[in-house]
Structure prediction request, 254 residues.
Amino acid sequence: MPAFRNDSSAEIAAALGALPSGSAVSVVATRLLDLFTSGSISPGTRLPPERQLAASLEVGRSAVREALAALEILGIVDVRPGSGTYLRGTASELLPQSLSWGMLIGERSTTELLELRSGLEIYVARLAAGRLTDAQLASLRRHLDRMRDSIDDLRSFVKADLAFHLELAESADNSVLLDLLQIVRSLLRVWVDRAVQDEGHARIALEEHEAVYRALAAHDADAAASAMAAHMSTASARLSRFAAAEQGDGAHAG
Prediction:
């Protein structure tokens, strides 16, 4: 494949080609990944806009948007609001991580990832109950307060929710476990950010996080694991339903 100039959005879009009808977000991400790691696009190149990519792939813009969001989390692209989306790194730097992450995106089902995430989050809660510091506990309390204050602002609520889980993972003081959780969260991020759809869901999530916090504050590992298991059960069911609905809609995108 020939090298592209930094201003060659049309050439990049044309090189993609149409995808089969009903392509899921993971397929869109994989096609983009193949192009971005081919060595034909220079680091820092501004990519075609979503509309142009969607037209070239013959998929809906939402599928392209979600695919780019997933690739941003993986460190493949840099999305700059008001400016555009840019390729990060060189092909040699991106290829190893792209191969491992891309394999997970394409071959692992959402259900399996949710099961893995649940197990990891539960174990994190158990470890954190005995390891977190007073400063970390106070930080978790602040994240809970932000969740409560943003019940009617779901975007802010989701950010505070994620911050709580990230803080908790750090509190477990296990770098390998933290890395595994980050992988799973990243792969599920396509749906997680929009899985809380209304204030009712947000209130349930808040109550469940507060139960986890109370167990952590008491340094009760069993209670923390139990509370997190309850939260993962409802959160996973909600996310699974949302992902299934999104994938079903994607089958009709053109």
Remarks:
- The chain has two domains: 9-107, 110-250.
- The longest strand covers residues 77-80.
- The two ends are 27 Å apart (CA to CA).
- The chain is about 70% helix and 5% strand.
